[in-house]
């Protein structure tokens, strides 16, 4: 895996040695999230509290190849793009399993935070401030030729003080190329741009052209959600929402929005991608609108969504104490107490 020049091969790309984590120093704690192909845990790496994403490799050769390629893309992009509104990348390894380690953000997902506030809405300056965080993160990606392709509240994480939003999960991100044909129907249907569909039903895995403007559409839906604290296309399933947006040009209502804000939202979700603004323009429009409504320091909602998962203390003995099983009497089985495996390998076996 290593080479004399300090560059390590991970899948189909080279990973600089400074990003290669040592599994012996990685400890995994409680699970904090789960997707279709990966689980995320709170953990510790060299006394630093981290988020540990463990990717399921799959079973068939085709599935394994596809997930390894996706893992390789995500690590390559995370390792080269840094911004205060992007989740900070710490490192990765491919063996014994595919793992991505990032900073741990204790504010929870934007989805969970908004849900905890219902039926109340965010104060407008706060909603627009969060939108600015998201726009700045996406602008940074686009400036590096990267399309995120999966902007949605589940992939937006809050800091512990709930003052900042950071964009996470580069699993579907791709480098933009004028000649590249990319997989259609990528992302989550309710937030997906209409051009990801053709005028006929797409076959699974069919390729078609699109560009970074797909993120502008998804951003508009997220912004609408930030303002209203309602699920967009309420009453529709994910597929129904995508079909309505793609084939009937249906959008959530912007009638009750202030004129300047309505212009931002509706311009971002226009049917023709060429008519949508880029993120530099979106940021300028948001900043202008914020200046017309915000006091010098926007008030942050009082309700704080606290993480139910304890952060591992510096003196933590490791996963064996966190993941120990208990019998019906509540006692730790003797066999578990006698075994003292250390490091990531034990963690992974117990977690997964």
Automatic annotation (TrEMBL):
Polar residues: bias regions: 317-327
Keyword ATP-binding: yes
Domain Protein kinase: 26-290
Region of interest (Disordered), ranges: 315-336
Parts forming coiled coils: none
Swiss-Prot/TrEMBL catalytic activity: L-threonyl-[protein] + ATP = O-phospho-L-threonyl-[protein] + ADP + H(+); L-seryl-[protein] + ATP = O-phospho-L-seryl-[protein] + ADP + H(+)
Protein family: Belongs to the protein kinase superfamily.
Protein name, entry field: Putative dual-specificity kinase TKL-Pl-4 family
């Amino acid at each position: 895996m290593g080479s004399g020049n300090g560059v390590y091969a991970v899948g189909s790309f080279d990973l600089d040695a400074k990003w290669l984590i040592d599994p012996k120093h990685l400890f995994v704690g409680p699970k904090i999230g789960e997707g279709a192909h990966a689980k995320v845990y709170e953990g510790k790496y060299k006394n630093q509290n981290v988020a540990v994403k463990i990717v399921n490799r799959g079973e068939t050769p085709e599935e394994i190849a596809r997930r390894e390629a996706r893992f390789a893309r995500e690590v390559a992009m995370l390792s080269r793009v840094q911004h205060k509104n992007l989740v900070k990348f710490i490192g990765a390894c491919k063996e014994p399993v595919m793992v991505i380690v990032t900073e741990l953000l204790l504010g929870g997902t934007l989805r969970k935070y908004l849900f905890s506030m219902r039926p109340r809405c965010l104060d407008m300056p706060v909603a627009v401030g969060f939108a600015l965080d998201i726009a700045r993160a996406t602008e940074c990606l686009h400036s590096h030729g990267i399309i995120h392709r999966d902007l949605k509240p589940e992939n937006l994480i809050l800091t512990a003080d709930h003052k900042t939003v950071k964009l996470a999960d580069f699993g579907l991100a791709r480098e933009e190329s004028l000649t590249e044909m990319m997989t259609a129907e990528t992302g989550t249907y309710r937030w997906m741009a209409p051009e990801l569909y053709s005028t006929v039903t797409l076959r699974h895995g069919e390729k078609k052209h699109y560009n970074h403007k797909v993120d502008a559409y998804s951003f508009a839906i997220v912004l609408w959600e930030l303002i209203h604290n309602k699920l967009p296309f309420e009453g529709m399933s994910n597929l129904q929402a995508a079909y309505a947006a793609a084939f009937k040009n249906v959008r959530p209502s912007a009638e009750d929005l202030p004129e300047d804000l309505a212009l931002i939202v509706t311009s971002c979700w226009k049917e023709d991608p060429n008519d949508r603004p880029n993120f530099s323009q979106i940021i300028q429009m948001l900043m202008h609108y914020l200046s017309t409504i915000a006091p010098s320091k926007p008030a942050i909602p009082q309700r704080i969504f606290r993480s139910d998962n304890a952060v591992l203390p510096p003196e933590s003995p490791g996963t064996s104490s966190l993941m120990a099983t208990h019998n019906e009497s509540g006692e730790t089985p003797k066999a578990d107490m006698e075994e003292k495996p250390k490091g990531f390998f034990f963690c992974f076996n117990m977690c997964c």
